Amino acid sequence: MNQIITKIYCDVCKKETKNEEVDIQVIFTTEQNEGKKCPPYLCNEKLNLCDDCIGKILNGNYIFASGGMGCNTYSFKK
Question: What is the mean pLDDT of the chain?
Fold first, then answer.
């Protein structure tokens, strides 16, 4: 019998987490079709977030996103 272990990683910092997806608003800096730069806009995304990243959000930091065709990267601005 095989056992399947599913690990969940934070979409922002890539740390392993037990948290499920959170529906959260992010700031995109690229268009989502071709990934070309564009004026920033808000978009709702379902992200897996660790407790540390949730803490940063609750302290007033916004998640920024870039990419196209579903291959996006998420980060906090420094």
Answer: 93
End-to-end CA distance of the chain: 47
On the CB side of 51, how many CA atoms lie within 13 Å of its CA?
A: 2
pLDDT surpasses 90 at 16: yes
Distances (CA, A) of 13 to 31, 46, 48, 75: 22, 15, 10, 7
Residue 3, CA distances (Å) to 6, 19, 51, 54 in order: 10, 21, 27, 31
Taking alpha carbons only, the member of 10, 21, 68, 19 closest to residue 45 is: 21
